[in-house]
Amino acid sequence: MTEKWQRVGVNATMFAGVPTTDPRIAGRGLCAHTEKCWSCMMGHLDMIRTYLEETGPEVVCAVFCEDDIMIDADFRARLEHVTTDFLLTGLDTLLLGYLIQYPMTGTTIGQSCYVDVETGHATQYRYYGYGDIWGTQMYMLSRKQAARILEKYGGDYADRFLANPAEHTQFSADWSITKEGRRALIYPMLAIEDGLSTYDDHSQREFHRLSHEVHKDASTYI
Q1: What count of Cα atoms within 13 Å lies in the side-chain half-sphere of residue 171?
Q2: Per-domain residue ranges for the chain?
Q3: DSSP label at 10?
Q4: What is the sign, positive or negative, of the torsion defined by CA atoms of 17, 19, 22, 28?
Q5: What share of the chain is helix, strand, coil (3-state, %, to 5)?
Q6: Which of 55, 123, 156, 198 is deepest in the core (most CB within 10 A)?
């Protein structure tokens, strides 16, 4: 991923991830799948916490992503355009990369045209409201929303969920982080999953494979 970010001219902050031996996970008798979900969720929360603690209020939004993705070859310039849209529309959460097995069609909540100043290539971005769209491959949060997410799901939330799951949202990134606030998703995506799924379950492998195959030609991804 470091090489990909360098190729598109983005100075991304890389994180090592959260191992299942982390004291926030270990020793609770969790099954392997739940440990993996908690590891992913805590990794996202650590990224959000770092953003809030290490940048000032002038950094009004940020992008968070996973490492098993392909990114748009023109990512930097397109992100600048999409960030402008994000701020103008007053969104809290914008999905830039997610999992879905078909192209996005239907009624949009907004659209805008990006024209590459060097090549003249135009991309019509379409914004959609969403419900049960899964995946946290890449998303943008406003600073206020990031603070709300960390306040709600940080601290001892995971243990409170474990003690009383019926009264709490699942401690999983795409059940929680991307389901909060005024939200939308964008198409074409700025990032897609890389299609190299290692799930043991056949249906999960197919879901992830199709979520890559269907969208890989919607833009140029590296």
Answers
A1: 29
A2: 2-213
A3: -
A4: positive
A5: 40, 20, 40
A6: 123
Task: List beta partners, residue 70.
Answer: 192
CATH architecture of 2-213: Alpha-Beta Complex (3.90)
Tokens of 53: 């603690």
**36 sits in which H/E element:** helix 32-54
Read off the pLDDT of residues 175-206 as tens digits, 9 standing for 90 and up. Answer: 999 999 999 999 999 999 998 877 777 788 88
Lookup: tokens for 52:
């809030």
What pLDDT digit, counting tens, does each position of 114-157 carry?
776 666 777 788 899 898 899 999 999 999 999 999 999 999 99
SS3 track for 165-212: HHHCCCCCHHHHHHHCCCEEEEECCCEEECCCCCCCCHHHHHHHHHHH
| CA distances (Å), origin 50, targets 7, 56, 69, 101 | 24, 11, 21, 32
Best CA proximity match to 71, nearest among 187, 191, 186 = 191
Q: Chain-centre distance of CA 142, in angstroms?
A: 13
Instruction: Give the model confidence (pLDDT) of 33-62 as tens digits.
Output: 999 999 999 999 999 999 999 999 999 999
Please state, in angstroms and rounded to a whole number, the distance separating the CA atoms of residues 108 and 116.
23
